[in-house]
Amino acid sequence: MSRTFVGMPKFAKMADRVENDTVLHDNISHATRKIRAKRARVFAEVPDAPALREAGAAIKDDVIRHLGHYLRQLEESVTARGGHVHWAEDGEEASRIITELVKATGTRDVVKVKSMVSEEIGLDEALVEAGIEPIETDLGAFANQLRGDRPSHIIAPSIHLNRDQIRDTFVSEMHKHGRPAPEGLTDSPEELTEAARLHLREKFLKAKVGISGGNFAVAETGTVLIFEGEGNGRMCSTLPDTLISVIGIEKLLPTWQDLEVFLQLLPLSAVGERQNTYISMWSGPTPGDGPSDFHLVLVDNGRTRALADPVGRQALRCIRCSACLNVCPVFEHAGGGQTYGAVYSGPIGAILTPQLGGLSNEVERSLPYASTLCGACSEVCPVKIDFPEVLLHLRSKTSQGKGHAAERVAMSASRAVFEHPHALGAVQRMAGTLGNKAAALPLPGPSAAWTRTRDLPDLPDTSFRRWWRKEHGQPDEGEA
Predict the structure, then answer these.
(1) Dist. CA 59–CA 329, nearest whole Å
(2) Which H or E element spans position 109?
(3) pLDDT per residue as tens digits for the range 77-104
(4) What are 198-237's pLDDT values in tens digits?
(5) DSSP letter at 301?
(6) Per DSSP, what are the bridge partners of residue 248?
(7) CA–CA separation, 289 and 244 (whole Å)
(8) Assuming Cys at both sites, which of 7, 123, 150, 283 could form a disulfide with 118, CB separation 3.0 to 4.6 Å?
(9) What is the C-alpha to C-alpha distance for residues 427 and 57, in angstroms, rounded to an integer?
């Protein structure tokens, strides 16, 4: 089952709770606008960007169509290179496998690369319950861990925090977990980064186990890859004796050559960079170089359920670049990932989380409605997911033809009017006479929430039908 956060209300209620949190909204708005502007600028410099997106979508669709074949090929490739492959049907099984692997090493200290799938399966909580201390090493994830916060963005987990808040967190919390923050720490990025580096370096040198996710896994070669900008992932994947990588079963690429497309698409879409600073890859242990033991945990956790849906399965193309989050007006104005009640937020969370969990709770059933259907997400998606199509598809599943009583009455009345031209003409004449007067008033009942934040447009004095008849010398419908 997809992991939604226990006790979280549905999306609309949570968005209302943070409506007046100006600091939160300013932090998210500033960050997303900066990222999307950079992405648009750099993407425009790539002459074959449309062809790259087509290729990315085609490769991922091939993976979805032949997933069983590529998974078997990946297992064979990893095993042939000395690695161990583990299969997990759900998050609980995946966490149990990883916890047992860590326990078998005899260590209680683990360093982690930022991983959305580990958040999805609740891995940190499972490790802590087993007496193991997982240390998040990504700067944003590390700040969140110190604060007890949930990730608010796929690639920038602490996007909801500003530099002042991160500095205050380092000062008040770092000493509880190891090396304290330096005296007189300011909020400059350089000082914050150095404080985290000094603290985490001790963890890297001590830890015997590293845990990573994976942006991609190449079936042909058994290679797992992570893209990052800080170098902490490189430390986690090379220094410990044991490396455990956990990925969703959809993260595959068929061949090494397919990487050519995604080596361009992912950094361009995620942060507007031509290339990531660090791209680490491994295909199993190498004697005398890096970890001596490699385990790959492949997680289903609802993915085969999504695979069975001809419309919804396109969500499995996602490469977790977060471009859709950065352009989404709902994500920006409703409080970012803190309002979604689940690990995956924004447009991809609105279509992926309900499918992974099977629309099994109030949060999942509310997420397909966390969208204006503006389509900006589809315009920037590097693998061309049709978000509005999937959102409407999921909405139809949640409503099951029921809807609000007032909505059913309104739809029935509209049908009666549209089926009779004379009735439609009468309604249009009435709207032209009374509409602009009524527009200044809030709508009653369930529609009141709509008019609280929107102005109704001015209606023309003459309907198109009346104008047409006049232009063509036909009698007006209202004439005898």
Answers:
(1) 29
(2) strand 109-112
(3) 999 999 999 999 999 999 999 999 999 9
(4) 999 999 999 999 999 999 999 999 999 999 988 999 999 9
(5) T
(6) 299
(7) 16
(8) 123
(9) 46
Q: Which two tokens stand for residue 77?
A: 């490739």
Please, are residues 75 and 85 in contact by the beta-carbon 8 Å criterion?
Answer: yes
CB 35 within 8 A of CB 271: yes
Nearest-angstrom CA–CA distance, 14 and 257: 44
Could you give the CA distance from residue 268 to residue 266 in angstroms, rounded to a whole number? 5
Distance between CA atoms of 27 and 43, rounded to whole angstroms? 24
**Nearest 5°: phi and psi at 112?**
-125, 140
Provide the 3-class DSSP secondary structure of residue 137. coil
Residue type, 444: P
- The closest alpha carbon to 31, from 271, 314, 367, belongs to 271
**Mean pLDDT on 428-456:** 66
Pairing of strands 223-228, 84-88: unpaired
Please, which pLDDT band fits residue 6 given cuts at 50, 70 and 90? Answer: very low
φ/ψ (deg, to 5) at 257: -65, -30
Query: Pick from 354, 386, 382: which is nearest to 370 by CA?
Result: 354
Question: Within 10 A of 342 (CB to CB), how many other CB atoms are there?
Answer: 26
**Sheet with 252-253, side-by-side order of all strands:** 252-253, 216-218, 223-228, 278-282
CA distance 366 to 217: 32
Residue 60's identity, in one-letter code, is K
What residues does 112 pair with on adjacent strands?
136, 211
pLDDT in tens, 320-373: 999 999 999 999 888 777 788 889 999 999 999 999 999 988 889 999 999 999
Give the residue among 343, 120, 374, 113 at the shortest CA–CA distance from 245. 113
Can you give the three-state secondary structure of 424-442, one letter per residue? Answer: HHHHHHHHHHHHHHHHCCC
Taking the C-alpha atoms of residue 473 and residue 467, their distance in angstroms, rounded to an integer, is 10
In SS3 terms, 322-346 reads as: CHHHHHCHHHHHCCHHHHCCECCCH
Alpha-carbon span 109 to 462, nearest angstrom = 74
Q: What percent helix, strand, coil does the chain show, rounded to 5?
A: 55, 10, 35
Distance of alpha carbon 431 from alpha carbon 438, whole angstroms: 9
DSSP state of 457: P
